[in-house]
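This part of the workshop introduces the protein records we will be handling. The question running through the whole workshop is how a given chain folds. To make this concrete, we reproduce a full record directly below:
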Amino acid sequence: MINAQEFAKALKLTVLSPSTREEWDIRSPDLNRPGMQFCGFYEFFAYERPQVIGKQEMAYLDEMDPDTRSARLDTYFSYQIPCVVCCRGMNPPEELLSAARRHDVAVYRSEEVTTTFSLEAITYLSRCLAPRVTMHGVLVDVYNTGVLITGNSGVGKSETALELVKRGHMLVADDVVDICRVSKDRLIGECPEMIRHFMEIRGIGIIDIRAMFGVGAVAQSKSIDLVMHLENWVEGKEYDRLGLTEESMTILGVKVPKQRTPVRPGRNLAIIVEVAARNYSLKQLGYSAAHELDRRLVEIQRQAQQDARKQNADR
């Protein structure tokens, strides 16, 4: 369900004709431009979507005689339309507003051009309709890489995030992270409104990161690019020391690279997260230090074998 008031506020719309409906049962982020419906063609009419009237549709309505326009619009508004948005700051004809009031359909005006408004509206609806999940963890923006820090309670997630904030990075969410899938391979994380910008530090209590470090130390949302899982160091357990094995974590059907980081006294977790974020960026550019080292070792072995065969041939 899409809240009508929040939709209008987020897209900076002016109400031309109000409606008593507070929510719309919208299931898709797509829009519909009703040019064919104004011509009288209603086959495959996507009436369940927000209706967007641009310059062409408005010009076609203006060319109609008042009686035809009134009849066409009355048929058009007889469908269960969520709302109508007139772009480019255009005012619709009175027949459209009258039909909208009779059928209790909200009509809005946007100052944006049709293409710009459509892009913003689809983005907004995609965020509202995206699948969501809430996870326990800390989300930080490190070198423009969204790092989700997970682990058991008390392992040091908030302390690591606090050190990262002191080093100039941004906090998105502490303890509770709301995650939504905005596309088939992209996740966005944000903090619930109630606890936004707050962090809990054991022994100190609740602190306000924005008030303490400034607005540049916080971000409202961030894509989740990498998961850093902190776990207590277990003596004798084998940990990946080369990075050749790539692990991932599936969140809402999206695979996110995951790294397990053992925690023990003396380890600087903040700088480890920084290095992991930079290493992730390099991998996105196609460079992996572990694979490069492996390639060099293979090249040295191949060269040694060739030298050995050459020496045997000379004998």
Remarks:
- Residues 131-232+241-290 form a domain with the Rossmann fold fold (CATH 3.40.50.300).
